[in-house]
Amino acid sequence: MKNQLIYYSVGPLLYCPANKATIAQSIIQEKFGDHYSLALCLEDTINDDSVAEAEQDLLQSLRTVHAASREKSFFLPKIFIRVRNPQQITMLTSSLGESACVVTGFIIPKFSRDNAAEYIHRIMEVNERSDHKIYVMPIYESHDMIDLRTRYEILYSLKDSLHQIEELVLNIRVGGNDLCHIFGFRRHSDESIHNIKPVSSLFTDIVTVYGTDYVISAPVWEYYGGDNWKTGLIAEIQGDKLCGFTGKTVIHPRQIEVVNACYRVSSSDYSDAKNILEWNKSSSSLVSGNQGGERMNEYKTHLNWARRILFLAQAYGVEQ
Questions:
Q1: Measured between alpha carbons, how far is 224 from 248 in angstroms, rounded to an integer?
Q2: Please, what are the domains in the chain?
Q3: Residue 41 to residue 34: CA distance in whole angstroms
Q4: In this structure, what are the phi and psi dihedrals at residue 39, rounded to the nearest 5 degrees?
Q5: pTM for the whole thing?
Q6: Within 13 Å, how many C-alpha atoms sit on residue 320's CB side?
Q7: DSSP secondary structure string, 88-140?
Q8: Which of 71, 165, 189, 190 is most buried, judging by how many CB atoms fall within 10 Å of its CB?
Q9: Chain segment 31-83, per-residue pLDDT in tens
Q10: Which of 102, 111, 156 is nearest to 130 (CA)?
């Protein structure tokens, strides 16, 4: 499992079209709060005919944010650029110049065996020239993973490809809506994606293959209004957590606090995790009831869980 806080700290990742004119001022004025990450998208949210213009809008927004950060203090989220081709990674990093320091990394849509090598090459290349780490978050959403006859081969092949940049892979992400699109599915606000079995089975396979080595983020929740959007989001996050996901893609600012609240660590989990990590390993017994007399803590069985809980507590806080 990952043993550094940064991998658990992406949190709610707010998606925004890269050509949104107000995004720089929204960041500077902290309109989205102070506990989120931001994805500036050049792919699905941008018309094919408007990509060049959107790239220039993106560059200007990031330069504005960088200039402001040198003059005043404000919360600067982790900022990621969702590209549509490998060449954009090199071009945008070069064009940003010193402003590239406000970019945490790049998001790779539809990560597959057809494009993995080129994307990995570009990430390695820009890191060789950068004075700070530039991370990457590949999205598993491509059509070729649907075929059960080749799914495991593809997932393990992509994992082998990522091994050379493992420390730069901040999260593995899953494209819930893209995968649903393949089947023509769409969940309502009172339904969870984990109940769409063809999609959730693929999530299970991704977590099984990658979960011991990477942090994996949960798919987007597309509802932000109406009677059930918040209740539905909370219910789906409960399923996300149980299935091995950490964090979630969001598409509206009002979803941010819901995600953060759902990932705050309970006081009982925090207490148990601390006790497990502080266990006297020379003791004759490595199992005992917890302080609340509610459940069993076992050092060898719950050690990885405890480490993860402490990282989540640092990233999201502890319920009071």
A1: 14
A2: 5-263 (3.20.20.60), 268-316 (no CATH)
A3: 21
A4: -110, 120
A5: 0.95
A6: 0
A7: HHHHHHHHHGGGGGGEEEEEETT--TTTHHHHHHHHHHHHHH-SS--EEEEEE
A8: 189
A9: 999 999 999 999 989 999 999 999 999 999 999 999 999 999 999 999 999 99
A10: 102
